[in-house]
Each structure stands twice: as structure tokens, then as C-alpha cells.
Batch of 4 targets.
Target 1
Amino acid sequence: MEDEFGVLPLPKYNESQSRYFTTLDFQMMTFAIPYTQSAPEDAALLLDAMSFETNEKILDVFLGNRIEQKGLRNEDSIEMLHIVYDGLGIDLGEAFDLFGTLSQSIKDNIPQGISDFASLIERNKKPIVKQMNKLQEKFE
């Protein structure tokens, strides 16, 4: 590569994966309504409306005018930006802390060349399932 910078999506798992997926830090996509709010339904309605308007009107203009034309100006990077943008999502396991220390343990092991994840996952399976069940009960 001879460019100073570039935009690349996270790689696909393999060729059979139909599209790219880009996980954002869940904190970037989180709204909170304080429990002391006297009208939480009104606050939620306002946040929902603001999110809709941002997605429908502001993001496309921001990406098109500011990022694409003034920031990138490179057709390949613009194409990559759209691949990333079209695959945005949140890892709910991270957002709701379902994995406990498992994610961090995997991230710590990779640079050390440790690839025996099966036993690590097996050790963490019961607490993760317990957390998932507790979360599901709250949603019900």
C-alpha cells in the first residue's frame, strides 16, 4: 500500500459469509434515561425521534458531504466506507456484559499465540448461559 491511510471493513469469516459486519463499541450507540425521570415514556419518544431523524437525514449528508467528499476523496475508500456503514451493528453480548471475562481472555490469548479456546469457552459456558437467562427474564 502506498497511501497514507485507508478505510477497510473487518474481514469476513470466509467466502460464504454474505456481507461484512462491523461491530461498534456499544457505548457509542447507547442512550440512558435516568431513573429519576418523571416521564420516561416522553424521554424515550424524544430519543427515538432524534435517532430516526439522525439516521434518515443527517448521517447520509454527513457521510456524503463531509466524509466522502472532504475527507476521503478516493473512490476505493468511499466504497469501503459504505461497506462498513452498511454492516453496522452492536454486539449485544458485549453491550449486556454476557461474556464476563471470556472476551478479554480471548483478546489476551491471541497475541500470545494461545489458540486453545475450546477449554476457555467451556469453563465460561455456565456463567454465560446463566447471564443470558437472567437477561431474557428481564425482557419478558
Target 2
Amino acid sequence: MGSAIVVADTSVIINFLRIDRMDLIKAYPDPFIVTDHVATEIADSYPDQQLRYQAALDHGHLSQQTVDDPAELETFLRLGAGGRLGAGERSAIAVALHRGHKLAIDDTRAIRRAVEEANVAGNPLTIIRTQDVIVRLIKSGAIDLHQADGIKEDWRQNHRFALKIRSFTDLL
């Protein structure tokens, strides 16, 4: 198995940027990295999210890396066939696969494609979703159950991100 680094897709990072809680990404037991493609997608979203993202980089909550390895670029391009995955998803999948890192991603179609790619390559791929990040933060003591459920409700009510659980107790 590879190192305990997490490569995050845009959706996972934006979930934490929206609620201004990038401190939780820093509190996660494994370090997070994002690709330059993910950073571009964040910049394309909302200016306040871009400012929060830049502050998170400045404070070392996560790091940004360029996709320039030929094998990663080949996978990135191959994943682009069909036009179904965005550049952020493709770059996060490529980097996670080739560097042996975990992949933080929420989109079901992208997850399916990442698993297919991992099976073809013969590389194990650990996939975590936003809810898995929160569960691990609860287990590590970074947040409590009440705070986690408050975040879940904030996402649902204010940010159009609804988890299919009643409470995080369902996942613990």
C-alpha cells in the first residue's frame, strides 16, 4: 500500500471551503494534496472560495502539486476520453493511482471510473468521500458528533450537499 497522503478532488475541497472549515482538512490525520487542475476548478467557482483556498495553502492546511509526470499525464488524458470527467477529477485520479495515495472524491461516476482504472493498472486504490473524512475526524477527536451533524445540516441547508444519513452516528 502507498503512503497515507490524500489526493482530493475539487468537490471534497469545496465542501470544506463553503463552510470555511479548511482547518478540518489540516486536522485530518493524513496530509491532503490537490493538483493544479483542482486549484483551477476552485478558482473558477467563487472568489471567496479562492481566497479561503489560498489561505489554506498559506497556512499549510494542504499543498498543491503539478501533474507533470509522463505516466500521470497519460492516465489524465486517457481518463478524458468520452468527456465525462472534469480535469480536476482526472488529475486527482491519475496522481492517486500513480503515487499510491488515497483518493478523496464524491462523484459516483468518477469513483466508478477510478476503480476501473485501478483494476486495469493492478494498483489498489483507497477511496474516501467527504462523509468518510468527517467520520475519521470524529474518531480522531478533532470534532465531536454534535459538530459533525451541525456541519452535515449546514451543507444540506445552505450548500446543496446532502448526505444520505440521518446522523453521523449511522456511520460510527
Target 3
Amino acid sequence: MINRRTLAKSLGAAMAISATTTVPATAEADGVRRRYLIRGGAVVTVDQTLGVLPRADVLIDNGRIEAVGRDLHARGAKIVDATDMIVMPGFVNTHHHMWSALGRNFVADGFPYFAAKRATSTLYSAQDVYRSVLLGLAELANAGVTTVHNWSNNTRSPAHADAELRAHRDGLLRARFSYGHVDQMPRDVPMDLTDVDRVRQQYFSGGTAFDGLVHLGVNLRGLSQSTEPAFFADIEAALGRGLPIAIHAGQAPPRTVDAADYERRGWLGPKTLLCHYVTALDSDMEIMARTGTPHSWSPHSEFRLGTAGDPRDALLRFRKAGVPTSLSSDATSIAPSDMFEAMRLVWNTGIPWQGTPSAGLPEIGFRDVLQMATVNGARALGLGDVTGSITVGKRADVILVRTNDINLAPGGLFETTLVQAATPANVDTVFSDGRIVKRGGKLVAYDVDRIVRDARTSSLRIRTTAGGILTPPAV
């Protein structure tokens, strides 16, 4: 959704990236992939071979990373001066309920997440979810997230699915759209996946949609929200379509996922993503590691909503078992779409705890959480060869983080700086598939005023309709 008049106005004051070749602001915001040379930054590649390069260049051409190294020369490239900046891969958020982004502030004391969701989920129109998903995508881009798993677990109608996909078309970020159930549907009724077939044919007949940025999956309720016969029907129908699946595993007793049973049924592997598996036993973790089944960890949610024990203990045991773990934000009414904050929370809590099975296990380090927030997430979504690291041949999902801002000064170790101190406010530039969507600290690929205005309109209508504690105050 590129409004060039708005972009030209906002970019007039956003030329914070100095360049030896001046690039017209509107040219960088028109959605066209160009040839760019990011020059002189500290490059945290998250590539095991390249590591951290204290000073290097990154060449981008037609959305692809062409070269990484010192003193690169690229005839015809637009120069992006990365002096005093850290260059790193864009973040990958592997579990985000984007349909409810505009309901981020519906919760209140005594009126927690699930109560707010029950009061409002049936009230979202197709227009509301378009506005919500686009709001979420713009927020993600602003925070340096370039890939997201849209866990669409309130797909109320074909029109709602179309609306979310239109938002992805306009949102310009890489994504998996995981078609899901209708929230609050009866537990004993299987999902109707007929419209998944329609969506697959209409949007994904070539495998991906929107110039290769979006691929299709299915998210399933799991046994925490459905009976065993209904869930078994759901998972067999999804796997029978050959689509990747995602399942809420359970943050609270009783344990709803039995990895040994899932393995016997052929349900585990790289195309099955489990989230919130706080209840996992050591044996479950061993099976996940052996089968290459990825895991999404939503640190704020695991602490706020989890009642199955200490999440720190579970995360350290997942790490010990070798389960591929990525980071996510869950819903915005639980946590912000801020991977810096997610990394910081995992780093601060990722320590062994005496008197628990985690005692004596290695603590989680800065490099560990950076991998969780980038390349691990890409692999969890089947995109490990596409994004998640600054590697020659991968797509150019790259962000630049200023290090001379007051909260990052006076600088220091680059990985430490990103995890310990950085925030979305420090994100200067964001490339999504080689297109600039944020520049000079300003979103340039979105009509932000319109997105916010539309989100307010939908939010007010939903709150007014829901009534009760959500009734807007009188003016």
C-alpha cells in the first residue's frame, strides 16, 4: 500500500542515510528492487562461516545478496552509508496472531487475554482483519521484522481469508499465511478446509504468492481447543494436502501433545511447527530433536499465560535436547511485536535455576538468541535457504541499526549491543526482499496515518459492539 504523495512528504525529512550517490526519496519507496551497496557497517551476518565482520560491505542486486566483504565495488549501485551502524538479517517472528493486532489494548486488570478474545473475536469483519493485519505488518517492519508467520486462528469466512491476504499483498513483508479455524467454534466439530483449497488455487497455484513473498500453511487447534476425533480429522486433512502445519502445544496442564504418539502417526518433522510446548517432557524434546520438528517460543506469553512450571527450565531443556527453537510474539495484547525485547527477555531469563532440571545447564548467550530470532525462525518456516542470515545467494532481508543513538552509545561488542540495548527506535533502515520499507528511522512504504486511522475506526466499532468493560469512555 504505497501512497507516493504521503511518502514524498514523509521522506523529505527522512534522508538520514547519507550516500555518495544521492537517491531520490520517492524512487526508494516505489516498491522497486534496485542495486544497493551497503557500505562500511559492522555486519552481524548470523552466518556460521562469515560470523561478525567489524567493517564490511553488503551488495544487494534485484532483491538478492550478491556479495559480502571489505571494500566492494559495484558499478551503478546506490550507496547506503552504514557508518556507525550494525547491519544484520531481518528478524523472523514465527508465531503472530495478526488478525487481533488492533485489539492489543482490549485487556485490562481482571479482564485478561482470553476474556478479551472471547468478548471480541466474533465481531471482526473482513475489513477489520485487513486493517489489523496491515497494522501488524507495518509495526513489524518498523521493528526490523522482515518475515512473519501469520497464525490466522480466526479465519471466519472466505472473505476474511481474502482480506488477510490483501493485507499481505500491501504489507511487503515475507510471510507464511497459516489458514486456521473460526475462533470459538465447537470443540467437537472438525475444521472445514474446503476454502484452503480455494485459497491455494487462487493465490498459491505457483507455490507462493505476491512475488514470492508469501507461502501457505494451516494452523490447527490442537487438543487444548478440540476433541480428539475433531483434532485427528483436522491434522489428517491438513497433512493430506501436503501443507506445513502449526499447532499450539499447550502452556498449561494437562499435557496435550504426546510427541511419541505424534511420531508413530507420522505427524512430526520439519513441516510441523509446535508452539508453547511448556509441558514437554524430556522424552518429547528428544523426539522433536531427532525428527527435526521446530519449536516456536513466545517468551512473554510463556511467562504470562503458562501454568505448567517455570518456562526458563523448559527452554533450557529444549536447548539441551537440540530442538530447533525460534522466537515469536504471540498476540500483541500479550507482547509487542518487538524481537529486541523478546531476545532480551530470553537472554535475561535463560540461566540455570538451582533445584530444577536446568541446574548445571549452560546459560543462553547473546549469539544464541540472535540465532533464535533470525536463522532459526527462517528454518522453522522452511525458509532457511531464503532468509535469516546475510549469506550470498539469500534474499535481501536486511536491517541497519544505528549505534550512535543515546541508548546504544558508546558502542561495544556488536551482538551484545543488539541484544542488551537496542530497540525498534534504533532501526534506521529495513530492506524487505531488496526493497526499502524503512529509511532514516521512518516507514516509507506505508501510509502510516491512514493505517492508524483505519485501525482506530475498527477498534472503536468492535469495542462499542462488545460493550461491558470495553465500552469506550464518554467524551
Target 4
Amino acid sequence: MFSGSNSGKRKKALSRVDGVLSRVVHNLGLEKRLKEKTLMDLWPTIAGGVLGERSRGLFIDYQGTLVVSVRDAATGHELSLLKPQLFKKMKAAARGLSVELTGLRFDLKHFHKNEVDHTNVGSVPPLPEPTAEDLANIVLSESELAELQQAVAEFEHAHTQAITDLPRRLAALFERQLRLKQWRKKHGYPVCSQCHDITGQIHGSAALCSSCYFNSQIRIVQNPGEQNFS
């Protein structure tokens, strides 16, 4: 039988362990979101030319499908014809980022709007984004440099001919996301209440980033009137 003092020590030890586990899970979630953003940043390069200019990665849904917003029906139709090739390349990039990508979907929603078509928390407009010079002046921490180095090693390991110079491209995009995260943190950008990612814009009364907001809407309802390109 344990004494009261021993029982208290055990509870404190378990509390510390729970705290460590919570931080680990939290950091893994943020790392995943950072890599998902890197993958979406690669989309214009994958689509290429005019198609890359007329479409953009919107979010990766809870089932692992990359949803790409298109400017018009013609663009959606062209991209749908190229879907097998595009998905193959995006999946190769996702593998390098340790992101599980299960599908690719095109739709017309939100392309012409700045992020989403609903009111931000407190009706606050989107915050300004940093210039290339601002990001270049950001000094990455030792932990961020280690994270970048580890990511580059993963990219090299997953190298594929599906995309020319894939490791270098992913490394550059991932480094930009690390710098952007630090810049936003220094400038007091809001934090998503769900994934805790620092974001340029939050939406709805729940204070969600764009990715979490879109995923929440998909879970709630599928709009039968929305035009999709499978």
C-alpha cells in the first residue's frame, strides 16, 4: 500500500509526463501543418504556366485530399484532364514531406475571394504579409535549422524523377515557411484555436485558420450545388 506522500509524487510524475506528451503532440501537429503549406506552395510549379496562375492549393482535407481552387470552369476542366499526372507529382512531393496525400480535387469555390467569404473575428481585415527582404532578414533558430536539415534529408531520401530538382524546391519552400512562421510570431499574428498555427487571418467565432475552417465546413455539410471537377 502506498503512502500519501508517495501517491502525491506519482501524481506529479504522471502530470509531468502528460505535459511532455501534450507538447510533443502539439509540435507534431504544427510540423504537419507547416509541411502541408509547403506542399501547397509547390502547386503553381506542378500545374505550370497559365494553369498554375489560374489555380491555387486551398487546403488538405481531413481525408488527405488536396483541394485546389480554380478560377473558372475551363481551367477546372483542363486540370481534370491532367489529374493523373498532376496527382502523381504531388504525391511524390508529399512523400518527401512525410504527408499522406490520398487524392486531388478541383473546385470553383473561393478563388476570387481573399481566403473565404465570411466575416473574420471582429471584422479585422487580413494582416499584411512580409516582403522577400523581411523574410531574408529572419535568422532561424538552432532548432529550426535542425528541423530544416532533417527535412532536406527526408527530401533527398524520397527523391523522384516525377519532379525536376524536387529536394531543392521543397527545401526552399519549407525554409520560407519556417521564416514566415517566425516573422508572423514576432509581429503578433493570431493563433488558430484548433491547430495552434500562427496565421495571417482567422475566421468565424471559433477563431480558426483557413485550413481548419474549410475542414470544419466539409465535415458539417457538402453543398450539392457546388461545381466540382473530380
